[in-house]
Amino acid sequence: MRASDWIARFLAAQRVEAVYEVAGGMIANFIDALHRDGQVRIVACHHEQGAGFAAEGHARMNGIPGVAMGTSGPGAINLLTALGSCHFDSTPAVFITGQVNRAEQKRDRPIRQLGFQETDVVAMAEPIAKAAMRVEAIEDLPRRLTEAFALARAGRPGPVLVDIPLDLQLAEVEAPLPDAPAAIDAAEEAALPEDAIARIVDDLARAERPLILAGGGLRAGLAVDGFRQLVDRLGVPVVNSLMAVDALPFDHPQRVGLIGTYGNRWANIALSRCDALLVLGSRLDIRQTGADTDAFAAGRTIHHVDCDPGEVNNRVTGCQALIAPLSTAIAALGEAAADLPSGAHESWSSEIAELAREWPDTEELPGIEGINPNLLMHQLSNEAAAAYVADVGQHQMWAAQSLELSGQQRFLTSGGMGAMGSALPMAVGAAVASRRPVAMIAGDGGFQLNIQELQTIARNEMPVKMVVLDNGCHGMVRQFQESYFDGRYPSTVWGYSAPSFVAVANAYGIPARRVEEPVDVADAVEEMWGAEGPYLLEVAIDLNANAYPKIAFGHPISEMEPFVAPKAMEST
User: Fold this and answer.
1) Is residue 178 in some structural domain?
2) In sequence order, what DSSP letters do the residues of 120-187 get, joined into one string?
3) Is the pTM here over 0.85, yes or no?
4) Per residue in 248-271, pLDDT tens?
């Protein structure tokens, strides 16, 4: 069997549902093979970065490695931002790039390039992937692809890049086709220390103000269901990082809210008051803890559970570490907590509830002109959506602070990479994976970075509901300039512009509407959700609206702008 045909059937055996790509000469064989085989859907995107983010969105919905393809040179390089996003946010993916014929590769010659578009994408990808592989011989192809899919899912998930020369795509493969997904090597798990498990449960039970911090590792580790059962047993309030907005339903009695740089004020205050903290799958990076790590750790016992030993006692030191897969650790914790009495932390939960009443999210921007962005997020919440996909910027923080997610809804966003322009194509992948409506929330600046994927949505009649918050600027950096550059706004306000997104959507054949007044929001949102296919809702937001609250840089997490001024310019 020709290699390109073998690959098409191999992908189907891995339970891959769709491949996202932009056509190019060095992947034309793959596309043709997929088309003829017919088992895996081809989703033709309009930029390779969009294809990569779509694969990421697909993978994050179902846990099966997402697949994106790019041709040699610019196509392969355009995949790298999405590859890095998968790496930083632990998303399983396989990126397949076409390469020029082996005879056209420069190898050790002291020249820049021999073949047209020849580019060493493997060397570029290595720092931001679990692995980047060159296929050098046809005998290696089956093994390399099998390794790539197994590695993408193993341990802490992530992306793998496989670069395949054109001549090998045409070569004959003699290896048998697998009839099941690539097996992950079953590394022997060390038995969890019973004393450590008992100590965690005992510390939480005895504490007056215990908290659990839910991180993105819960999703990456396929541990959310077990986590929810554990929370119900422990009865301990739960705060979440940006990557774990969907760890608990909005109405869950133990859910507190978002913590971190732009966390809900009440949640950050609760975190500052807690005396025992269980961290599950969170890196405790600067956007979660603030810059003052001593204040974050002071006065509390911290148990940190993670599958990656490098992430524990990294920035925040003095944590009691438990290195284990989250699903395994959570199961053990649940067994140890089976006999705990209920209602042990009711007074602490009541204290947190009072903080939430004192500092409501919709009152963080008093006197705002026009539509309140936090109130908008509450209004956008609708159980029809399989997922809410947020781009990067102020709207991302308003969404994480205020969306009301049900138990089965997902919240997807680019965390570690923080890639503007990721949401629109990521919503494409989420919609393909879920076969249900998906809501995308973006700012006018970020939306323009991959706006060409409107054609992907229109052509495929995808039920993506796009909400563009138009504040006429790059809002998050404008807020940064307001704080640190005496209100000078080059490139964010001055020298920046955006089109009418309603007109742009209509040009793609997508129905759209713009709202500018609060009284019109409810009707516009109802119209959006009532539309059968794609819909774009453009919402005018005050240019001067800031994402508040915000940790005042250099201060403890409970001291937040606008009431406290930062000590220095933040570095992130």
Assistant:
1) no
2) -HHHHHGGGSSEEEE--SGGGHHHHHHHHHHHHHSSS--EEEEEEEHHHHTSB--SPPPSSPPPPP-P
3) yes
4) 999 999 999 999 999 999 999 999
